[in-house]
Amino acid sequence: MRLILLGPPGAGKGTQAVVLSEILxxxxxxxxxxxxxxxxxxxxxxxxxxxxxxxGKLVPDDVTVDIVGSRLKEDDCxxxxxxDGFPRTIPQAELFDRMLEERGEKIDAVINxxxxxxxxxxxxxxxxxxxxGRTYHVENSPPKVEGICDACGGxxxxxxxxxxxxxxxxxxxxHEQTSPLIDYYRKKGIILNFDGTKPxxxxxxxxxxxxxx
Length: 213
Ligand code: AP5
Known about the structure:
Layout: E1 2-6, H1 13-24, E2 28-30, H2 31-41, H3 44-53, H4 61-72, E3 81-84, H5 90-102, E4 109-114, H6 117-125, E5 127-129, E6 135-137, H7 164-178, H8 180-187, E7 191-195, H9 200-212
Parallel strand pairs: 1-3, 1-4, 2-3, 4-7
Antiparallel strand pairs: 5-6
Helix pairs in contact: 1-9, 2-3, 4-5, 6-7
Bound molecules: BIS(adenosine)-5'-pentaphosphate.
BIS(adenosine)-5'-pentaphosphate is lined by residues 7, 9-15, 30-32, 35, 52-53, 57-59, 64, 85-88, 92, 123-124, 126-127, 135-137, 140-141, 170, 196, 198-200, 203.
């Protein structure tokens, strides 16, 4: 199955992607995680990406599309994938369509998770991340031991772009550049809409039920 997770920052894309990836047994590909791994490793891509991410802006389309193209060539993508945070602009979506067409593939569904800006600001200020990809929230989904990942025992950290003024800029970027994708995929008849303010498990269940249909 080939899926895209769409939605504003903090809507719960990463949270749902980790669970869906385990259940559906397809890889979770997050462009944000790829950029953060490069920032951590101090690579030239990381240096470039950091300047955009810290400002709440999008990394340029050509750079982002190239990264996804390389990742898709890996064997684990042959039976499907969950794209988390890509595409994020109309040009990215058009290039992605072309890339998939060349591979003889197409997107089965776009999972659009929505939440109001006020919910997002509250959520992202309480988010805690682990380098293994798990995401926690100090109130909504805390780890069993404070500051430690339940899954791998790693030390949790706060993302640099989860400061309130950067969150507001990320939301502006989302409304301007990413939300037009909802219409783009609606016209293709492949969008499924979900309320990201429901409990995490409820949203997961609703997504799985919709995918079965
Ligand atoms: P990226 O890492 O993709 O960030 P994002 O889209 O801003 O999304 P987030 O990871 O912040 O939120 P999420 O929806 O995954 O929510 P989460 O599950 O963590 O991208 C970072 C940056 O990289 C971008 O700003 C951009 O600069 C660059 N970039 C990435 N892709 C790009 C692209 N394609 N093109 C150009 N640039 C790109 O949940 C958030 C919090 O809420 C957590 O604490 C979680 O525990 C909690 N939570 C989740 N669901 C619920 C729920 N139902 N109820 C209560 N709490 C919940």
